[in-house]
From TrEMBL:
<dbReference type="InterPro" id="IPR000157">
    <property type="entry name" value="TIR_dom"/>
</dbReference>
<dbReference type="GO" id="GO:0006952">
    <property type="term" value="P:defense response"/>
</dbReference>
<dbReference type="InterPro" id="IPR035897">
    <property type="entry name" value="Toll_tir_struct_dom_sf"/>
</dbReference>
<dbReference type="GO" id="GO:0007165">
    <property type="term" value="P:signal transduction"/>
</dbReference>
<dbReference type="InterPro" id="IPR002182">
    <property type="entry name" value="NB-ARC"/>
</dbReference>
<protein>
    <recommendedName>
        <fullName>TIR domain-containing protein</fullName>
    </recommendedName>
</protein>
<keyword id="KW-0520">NAD</keyword>
<keyword id="KW-0433">Leucine-rich repeat</keyword>
<dbReference type="Pfam" id="PF01582">
    <property type="entry name" value="TIR"/>
</dbReference>
<dbReference type="InterPro" id="IPR042197">
    <property type="entry name" value="Apaf_helical"/>
</dbReference>
<dbReference type="GO" id="GO:0043531">
    <property type="term" value="F:ADP binding"/>
</dbReference>
<dbReference type="Pfam" id="PF00931">
    <property type="entry name" value="NB-ARC"/>
</dbReference>
<dbReference type="InterPro" id="IPR032675">
    <property type="entry name" value="LRR_dom_sf"/>
</dbReference>
<dbReference type="InterPro" id="IPR058192">
    <property type="entry name" value="WHD_ROQ1-like"/>
</dbReference>
<keyword id="KW-0677">Repeat</keyword>
<dbReference type="InterPro" id="IPR001611">
    <property type="entry name" value="Leu-rich_rpt"/>
</dbReference>
<dbReference type="Pfam" id="PF23282">
    <property type="entry name" value="WHD_ROQ1"/>
</dbReference>
């Protein structure tokens, strides 16, 4: 199974559709004489009536063809085999042969036994009538009719079949019709489960399906008798159809009938009436399992559906509906379908669902980043995670697609198997212009908008208003003449726009790009012709060239300091209605400025007042001049009849408000953070429509004009942070519309008694400046009259509290932090109260009875608190904060209310009783976000696995008769910082999967504390035998936070309550992991950059291989590693932060391979290295090692690699059995041990060692050697060079490579000093000498930047006399400049080219040269662009020992050519 198929199989919770085409759906095996004309005949007729093709021998086989082979073919070609066991079934050898064949096919088909007037036990044990039948069969053995083995196969088949799940007529009270109906239901389920809609890429589908299933109520027994209609709503490409198909596949088989009506919108658009008739026919044929139903008209189809489906329990999926006519023709009323039916409608139109009256609507969600990355990877790489090389590029795609499955599929499918350069190019193109295939799908929603006005509104939002307040935009669009609020509502209904929790208009990036592309299309690509300008370059071009035209209706430009244009550039934009400038300066006169502005948003307005020549804007609705340089708004204010919103926030020089008499219809006044504002014009009280006044942080404002308090329209007044504000006038009580009053951090010392008259007040927030002492007579006699109050905040008011708080019956939130009262009045009457805050009430001793609806209680740092109310009835409590209340001993009844809770903070409560602690810890049910924080330094004793570290490892035990519901996690932490975050990494090392759980939002705790929480197995997906590694990760303040202990307890058969839905800041992140453990023998972790230390290896006593490649943050390897008696491989390649290994490591007698390549900070190999007697391979390339201990005692060491160890000074004694030493690029290395006894040495690599002068004794060990690489060793002595060159004996592949500053040795007699070819004649044999071979030498130069490479150099020996040629591949050219500093050295010393010398040998056993042969030798580099042979020489070897190197097994090492090649 390839990766993609495996993915599909694992992604779907239902079987995949089979590619096998079944000839029959059902094969009936029965004893004809018993049931053919009775039960089996009726069953066959019923199956046929329900549309099933069932095999029955007398119907399907002509009498002459009634042979065994055809029966077996029929069984093979059937999806289901039904065996009708009757009293005489076993009498028939034909039946028994059928049964054997059926049981052989059981792996690929369903087998369903029926017990018709027989007991299953008689069939299983062959008793009663079955015993009688087998007496005859046993007798047949003696008579030669049957083989003994065959009869035994019959018995085995009967036993196996009887053990299968089937149906017994007795269970239907002998009622055959009821029995047959039940069988039909089973067959229907089995057949439906085989026929699946194609659903690719089911990434992240499970949670979405579960949510829809909950709405549908399929698994809710209480809704089985009702018909439910559900909508799946979402923008195009969001995955609605995939979700609907999955529901159809997973749950369709449990219905009597099902139908998936695909692409309803498209069918209707293409054929309208005929299309609807076709859909009606499909619905009827699907559910009634018929293929011949025809419908004459839509009206006739409606009648047929209503009459024929009203008794059928059906699942109907209506996919991509967009018109009410479609639903009226298919599913107008619920009573058209039988009780228990479910109708699911997928659409982009919310209004359509409202019209048809669905019971619930599921809003399809975009994929999160993790899901998107996985889906994209399946399309781009055919695996579930990107190749490391493409990870950053993949994340760019994810950001572009914004979780839209359609886009992820389209882009991924385009990029598959393309090089990274093409990825870069395509991504740049996408950022300039949207993908056409994606836009085609998305544009359906735009084109489907009911009129041009809605389309214009969409374009306005896509260009200018994304992220802005919905109500604010509504006002602007209404000023443009667009019908509001219905315009935006339609866009929301069509899933083109969404509204955030903060009431901001949001739009998917691809929808935004589509809208902007539509604007471009309408103007043939010329910016000055655009109706809207939003792109910085386009706006700058148009304003710089003053090329604007009357077609332009909107402009947005976000400039920077110094961005400047002339006001005249806007002169020709006569239709300009929307203008948004940010940090832009306009110079010159404004008198020709457009006069039809609806919205003027100019952040950083540079002038001290609006110019006198700025034209009157009679249509202006919103004026936003935040962060302006204004001192006064207008010198001479002109009438702005339509202005509704004025926002001058952060205008630090503004000293007074404008005269509001010229702004008669103003509704919102926002002057937040106008630090110099000291005066508000008295005309403000005359504004009859003013609803919002925001004066927050106007620090010089002392009061408001008395006329202000006459306002009957103001609903919200915000004065927070007005430090100088001293008094609220008594007239406050006359502001009858006031609903929100926030007066925090002011100098107010008295609350006017008239406040009690504010019947509509819903939010009241009053707090004293923390530097002021509160007075005690602040409150009016009663607040009880504030019956609408929902939120009340009274902070820093000393011990003065209103006496009748319990009379505020509508109160939902009560904030009483930083007060000095000792007690509270009873709050139990506040039945709506959900959130109560008593933070830092230092003198509070007791909290009285609380309302049972309370969800959050915050009473942290109430140091005198010692008594809590009974919590046994607090069934809605979610979060409880009591940190620092060290006098508390318990909270009565809290253990009875734990099912609703998500968070308990009781750290610093040091006097809690042991029983109380145990009860809440053991009774905790919440999974996911939150947990319990307590003081303590130990894990509870009931935990299964505990470790004195931040890592826990365990194996999931077998759950015989139990269900694993999840894990309880705990850790003990010490902290010296007040805020830190902790997450959990749960690695399923068996399955290679990781779940990162960010379930603790914040740990605002200092000191020691214990945390306990839970994770559901619905998220973990652990199974028996899984090896699990859990790590607690401190995300911030590493130095100040230390996890001391960690524990895990497995939870079996216990209710666990998942609560992540409400906490969007917490999340689960899944990723494929390279972490693998097989039977505790292997740990394999790659590229885990959050792994600071290895696990405790005492948990892995049988570990054989440890691979921690690319774990860049790894700094510590657990010391127990040296005690692992079976460990043979340790691979720490690329662990760049690792500096050393524990001393215990070097005690290992089992490690054979140690890899430290790329551990760039690794400095020391301890002296104990020489005691690792099993070490065979040691690789430490690119490390910071300065010296290594003696390795002479490592008799098994074969390979030692120390390449690019730039600090290495010397290589000490080496073992005599060493085969390979590599120490290239070690610039400080100048001493190497004696090689005279290295009799097994094969390959030596010592390139670019500038300080090296010789390798002592190397000439004594040449007989075993095949390759010596010493290129770049420019200081070798002449004696050393001569010795190794003259004593070289190896023939064939390999040779000696030296720096090319040395010439061809002088003993070579045949030399071409300028080229790559030599000619010579082989002398006749003289004085009994034998020609043993040739020594060949050449000097070559190379020049190429980039990484160091090797390329073959061909040596062609032509025997011109015998017309034969030997082509060899025994030499390789080195080319490329590996490191910048080496490059500089070479440029200084040798010019731009590198020169190398090669010497090697060819044996005459291969060459077959004889006296008198004329020979040419040509040296030909493979890559002539970068390698040039400059000199060539040959020396004939007579009577010399020459050893053929057999290490290279290349079949083309030597290739003979004949005279045809000359």
């Amino acid at each position: 199974m390839d990766a993609r198929k495996a993915h599909k199989a694992s992604s779907s919770s239902s079987p995949s559709s089979s590619s096998k085409r079944w000839e029959y759906q059902v094969f009936l095996s029965f004893r004809g004489e018993d049931t053919r004309k009775g039960f089996t005949g009726h069953l066959h007729a019923a199956l046929a009536g329900d549309g099933f093709r069932a095999f029955l021998d007398d119907n399907e086989l002509k009498r002459a063809e009634f042979i065994k082979t055809q029966l077996e073919q029929a069984i093979d070609g059937s999806m289901i085999s039904i065996i009708v066991f009757s009293k005489r079934y076993a009498d028939s050898s034909w039946c028994l042969d059928e049964l054997v064949k059926i049981m052989e096919c059981r792996e690929r088909q369903q087998v369903f036994p029926l017990f018709y007037n027989v007991d299953a036990s008689d069939v299983r044990k062959q008793t009663c009538s079955f015993a009688q039948a087998f007496e005859k069969h046993e007798a047949g053995i003696c008579e030669g009719k049957h083989e003994k083995e065959k009869v035994q196969r019959w018995r085995n088949a009967l036993t196996q079949a009887a053990d299968l799940c089937g149906e017994d007529l007795k269970n239907a009270d002998g009622h055959e019709a009821k029995f047959i109906k039940k069988i039909l239901g089973k067959v229907n389920n089995l057949v439906n489960s085989k026929y699946q809609l194609d659903t690719e890429d089911l990434v992240g589908i499970t949670s979405r399906v579960n949510e829809v299933v909950r709405m549908i109520g399929i698994e809710n027994s209480g809704s089985k008798d009702v018909v439910r209609m559900i909508g799946i709503l979402g923008m195009g490409g969001i995955g609605k159809t995939t979700l609907a198909k999955t529901i159809y596949n997973n749950f369709g088989p449990i219905f009597e009938g099902r139908s998936f009506l695909a692409d309803v919108r498209e069918v209707f658009a293409n054929q309208r009436s005929n299309g609807l008739v076709g859909l009606q026919e499909q619905l009827l044929n699907n559910i009634l399992k018929n293929e011949g139903i025809k419908v004459g008209s839509v009206a006739e189809g409606i009648d047929m559906i209503r009459e024929r489906l009203c008794c059928k329990t059906a699942l109907v999926i209506i996919d991509d509906a967009d018109d009410l006519q479609q639903l009226k023709a298919i599913a107008r009323a619920r009573d058209w379908f039988g009780p228990g039916s479910r109708i699911v409608i997928t659409t982009r139109n919310q209004h359509l669902l409202d019209q048809v009256g669905v019971d619930s609507t599921y809003m399809a969600q975009a994929m999160d980043e993790e899901e998107a990355l996985e889906l994209f990877s399946w399309h781009a790489f055919e695996i579930g995670y990107p190749d490391q090389e493409y990870l950053d590029l993949s994340k760019r795609v994810i950001r572009y697609c914004q979780g839209l499955p359609l886009a992820l599929r389209v882009v991924g499918s385009f990029l598959i198997k393309r090089p990274s350069a093409e990825w870069e190019s395509h991504l740049e193109k996408l950022e300039r212009s949207p993908d056409g295939d994606i836009q085609k799908i998305l544009r359906i929603s735009f084109d489907g908008l009911p009129d041009e006005e809605k389309r214009e509104i969409f374009l306005d939002i896509s260009c200018f208003f994304i992220g802005m307040d919905k109500d604010y935009v509504t006002q602007i669009l209404k000023g443009c003449g667009f019908a509001q609020p219905i315009g935006i509502s339609v866009l929301i209904e069509r899933c083109l726009v969404t509204v955030s929790e903060e009431n901001k208009l949001m739009m998917h990036d691809l929808l935004r790009d589509m809208g902007r592309e539509i604007v471009r299309e309408k103007s043939t690509g010329r910016p000055e012709k655009f109706s809207r300008l939003w792109k910085g370059e386009d706006v700058i071009d148009v304003l710089s060239d003053e090329s604007g035209t009357k077609k332009i209706e909107g402009v947005a430009l976000h400039g920077s300091y110094g961005t400047r244009f002339t006001a005249q550039a806007f002169t020709n934009m006569k239709k300009l209605r929307l203008l948004h400038l940010n940090n832009v300066e306009l110079t010159g006169e404004y008198k020709y400025f457009p006069q039809k502005l609806i919205w003027l948003c100019w952040h950083g307005f540079p002038l001290e007042s609006i110019p006198d020549d700025f034209p009157t804007q009679p249509k202006l609705v919103a004026l936003d001049l935040q962060w302006s340089a204004l001192k006064i708004v207008w010198k001479d204010c002109k009438l702005h009849q339509n202005l509704k919103i004025l926002n001058l926030s952060h205008s630090y020089e503004l000293t007074k408000s404008p005269d509001f008499s010229k702004l008669p219809n103003l509704e919102e006044l926002i002057l937040e953070d106008c630090e110099s504002l000291s005066e508000v014009h008295s005309s403000i009280g005359d504004l009859g429509r003013l609803s919002l006044v925001n004066l927050e942080c106007c620090r010089r404002l002392k009061d408001l004009p008395l006329n202000f308090y006459k306002s009957k329209s103001i609903e919200t007044l915000l004065l927070n942070g007005c430090w100088s504000f001293e008094k609220l006038a008594e007239g406050l009580g006359d502001m009858v519309s006031l609903t929100t009053l926030k007066v925090e951090d002011t100098s107010i010392r008295q609350i006017p008694s008239s406040i009690s008259k504010l019947k509509k007040l819903e939010v009241l927030s009053l707090s004293c400046d923390e530097n002021e002492l509160p007075l005690t007579n602040l409150w009016p006699p009663s607040l009880q009259s504030l019956s609408s109050l929902r939120e009340l905040a009274l902070v820093r008011w000393g011990d003065a509290l209103p006496k009748d708080l319990d009379g505020l019956i509508s109160l939902e939130r009560l904030h009483l932090a930083h007060n000095d009262f000792c007690s509270l009045p009873s709050l139990s009457r506040l039945s709506q109260l959900q959130d109560l805050s008593l933070l830092w009430c230092r003198n509070l001793r007791a909290i009285p009875d609380l309302p049972t609806n309370l969800k959050v209680l915050k009473a942290e740092y109430c140091f005198e608190l010692e008594k809590m109310p009974d919590f046994s009835e607090m069934s809605n409590i979610k979060e409880l904060y009591l940190s620092g209340s060290d006098k508390l001993t318990e909270i009565p009844g809290l253990d009875k209310s734990l099912n609703s809770m998500t968070m308990i903070y009781m750290d610093g409560c040091t006097n809690l009783t042991a029983d109380f602690r145990k009860n809440i810890l053991q009774g905790w049910t919440s999974c996911g976000y939150g947990g319990i924080f307590l003081s303590g330094n130990d894990i509870p004793d009931w935990f299964d696995y505990v470790h004195d570290d931040d890592i826990v490892y365990f194996t999931v035990p077998r759950g015989v008769g139990r269900n694993l519901k999840g894990l309880t996690l705990s850790f003990v932490c010490s902290s010296s910082v007040l805020s830190h975050r902790i997450s959990f990494s749960i690695k399923n090392m068996t399955k290679g999967a990781e779940l990162e759980a960010r379930i603790i939002l914040d740990c605002p705790i200092e000191g020691y504390y214990l945390w306990q929480g839970q994770l559901s197995n619905d998220e973990l997906k652990l199974q028996d035998g899984d090896k699990v590694l859990i790590e607690i990760i401190v995300e911030e303040y590493d130095d100040g936070v230390k996890v001391k202990k960690a524990g895990v307890s497995l939870v079996w058969d216990k209710f666990m309550n998942e609560n992540m839905i409400d906490y969007h800041l917490c999340r689960y992140e899944r990723r494929p992991s390279q972490n693998l453990v097989n039977d505790d023998h292997i740990i394999h972790v790659e590229n885990d950059n959050r792994l600071p230390k290895s696990p405790d290896f005492s948990k892995f006593p049988n570990l054989e291989k440890l691979i921690l490649k690319g774990c860049k943050k790894l700094i510590k390897v657990h010391s127990y590693i040296g005690d692992l008696g079976r460990l043979s491989l340790v691979d720490l390649e690329g662990c760049t932060d690792l500096e050393d290994l524990p001393l215990n490591f070097y005690k290992s007698k089992s490690i054979e391979t140690l890899i430290l390549n790329g551990c760039s900070r690794f400095e020391d190999l301890a002296d104990g290295l020489g005691d690792m007697v099993s070490l065979t391979i040691l690789e430490a390339d690119y490390t910071a090692i300065r010296q290594i201990p003696s390795l002479a005692g490592l008799s098994k060491l074969k390979v030692l690699c120390l390449n690019a160890c730039r600090e290495l000074l010397a290589i000490p004694d080496l073992p005599k059995n060493l085969y390979v030493l590599k120490a290239n690029g070690c610039p400080k290395l100048e001493t190497i041990s004696d090689f005279s006894k290295m009799s097994n040495m094969r390959e030596l690599y010592l390139c670019d060692l500038f300080k090296l002068t010789e390798v002592p004794g190397l000439d004594k060990s040449l007989n075993s050697m095949t390759r010596i690489h010493m290129e770049g060793c420019t200081n070798l002595t002449a004696d050393f060079r001569n010795n190794i060159l003259q004593r070289w004996t190896s023939c064939g592949f390999g040779g000696i490579y030296l720096n090319g500053i040395y010439d061809i040795p002088e003993w070579f007699k045949i030399v071409n000093h300028v080229d790559n070819i030599v000619f010579f004649e082989v002398p006749q044999r003289i004085m009994g000498r034998d020609l043993k071979g040739l020594t060949i030498c050449f000097v070559y130069s190379s020049f190429v930047f980039g990484r160091e490479l090797e390329g073959p150099i061909g040596i062609i020996v032509r025997n011109l006399t015998k017309q034969t040629a030997l082509h060899t591949k025994i030499a390789f050219a080195r080319y490329g400049r590996p490191e910048p500093d080496l490059l500089i050295r070479r440029l200084l010393s040798t010019g731009l080219e590198d020169h190398y010398l090669w010497q090697g040998q060819l044996s005459n056993d291969v060459l077959c040269l004889e006296g008198g042969d004329h020979v040419s030798i040509l040296v030909r580099p493979h890559d002539v662009d970068f390698v040039r042979v400059k000199k060539t020489g040959v020396h004939l070897e007579w009577d010399k020992v020459m050893k053929e190197n057999m290490d290279n097994l290349d079949p083309h090492l030597y290739d003979w050519k004949t005279n045809r090649d000359f």
